UniProtKB/TrEMBL annotation:
<dbReference type="GO" id="GO:0015629">
    <property type="term" value="C:actin cytoskeleton"/>
</dbReference>
<keyword id="KW-0206">Cytoskeleton</keyword>
<dbReference type="InterPro" id="IPR028433">
    <property type="entry name" value="Parvin"/>
</dbReference>
<dbReference type="InterPro" id="IPR036872">
    <property type="entry name" value="CH_dom_sf"/>
</dbReference>
<dbReference type="GO" id="GO:0005737">
    <property type="term" value="C:cytoplasm"/>
</dbReference>
<dbReference type="GO" id="GO:0003779">
    <property type="term" value="F:actin binding"/>
</dbReference>
<dbReference type="GO" id="GO:0007155">
    <property type="term" value="P:cell adhesion"/>
</dbReference>
<protein>
    <recommendedName>
        <fullName>Calponin-homology (CH) domain-containing protein</fullName>
    </recommendedName>
</protein>
<keyword id="KW-0677">Repeat</keyword>
<dbReference type="GO" id="GO:0030036">
    <property type="term" value="P:actin cytoskeleton organization"/>
</dbReference>
<keyword id="KW-0009">Actin-binding</keyword>
<keyword id="KW-0963">Cytoplasm</keyword>
Length: 263
């Protein structure tokens, strides 16, 4: 995480129903343990969330995470100290260690949005949170950073919750050594459900980025004419493709083919 970087949740993610449900479930889960202590979490990114998590863990394990009466001031420094103790406690008692590329202690202490949320999701899953955690939830994070006097913006997508295991995942083939190993495409062809799930993930990824220019694709087939694909690649690569380089409203198959060959 860059020192001068500012991270924000993309508006498309804020509006995503599944993301909002996940946030609500996490808050309900935490508050169900701390409300007797006259504590309440209204925002998972507020500085008091560390104290709330410490209280939750103490209720579940019966062991003290933070010494009573210490670190009561609501400051960034105290948040970092408490969250550090929380992460150490979880690692020591439950064996839940940081996962590079998902969440790290450094990211949690720096209030990196994706790192903190992934930590909360993993903790809630480990402790069998009774509130529903929607599967396949993605979040788009906008990173703004000033480099050489110029603000640079970059958008990254992170997966907060995992897939729901399907029946196919739990079935053990009777022949442990198939004659021909199936590749990823074979699996997709043989499992319409997996194909549907992958399509939904890809469509969500596409729309998270296209939302930056107020465009939405209702179906992946809309990328067939090349227009949405050109705009998407331009956003991802921070490039502007002049309108003269492609057909904004392709009316023939030749126009579509021409659009596909822009990159």
């Amino acid at each position: 995480m860059a020192d001068n970087a500012v991270y924000e949740i993309h508006e498309a993610s804020k509006a995503d129903v599944q993301f909002r449900r996940l946030m609500q479930s996490l808050k309900q889960w935490i508050n169900s343990y701390i409300n007797q202590d006259m504590l309440v979490v209204r925002d998972l990114f507020e500085l008091t969330v560390g104290t709330a998590l410490a209280t939750l863990l103490e209720k579940i394990t019966g062991q003290e995470v933070v010494e009573k009466g210490s670190l009561v001031a609501v400051t960034l420094k105290n948040y970092q100290l408490i969250m550090g103790l929380v992460v150490q406690f979880v690692d020591r008692h439950f064996g839940m260690s940081q996962v590079e590329g998902r969440w790290t202690l450094k990211g949690v202490l720096a209030q990196d949005i994706s790192s903190l949320l992934c930590f909360l999701v993993d903790l809630a899953t480990l402790l069998k949170c009774p509130f529903p955690l929607p599967p396949n939830v993605l979040i788009a994070i906008i990173q703004k950073q000033v480099i050489d006097g110029t603000e640079k913006t970059r958008t990254t997508v992170h997966k907060l919750t995992q897939d729901i295991p399907t029946v196919e995942d739990s079935v053990v083939a009777s022949d442990a050594t198939p004659a021909v190993a199936m590749d990823a495409f074979d699996v997709l062809v043989d499992s319409p459900q997996k194909f549907k799930e992958l399509s939904e993930l890809l469509l969500g990824f596409v729309n998270m980025h296209l939302a930056m220019v107020n465009i939405q694709a209702n179906d992946l087939s809309m990328l067939d004419d090349g227009v949405h694909a050109i705009i998407l690649i331009g956003i991802l690569a921070n490039l502007f493709v002049p309108l003269s380089k492609y057909h904004l409203i392709p009316s023939t198959e030749a126009h579509k083919v021409s659009n596909r060959l822009v990159f």
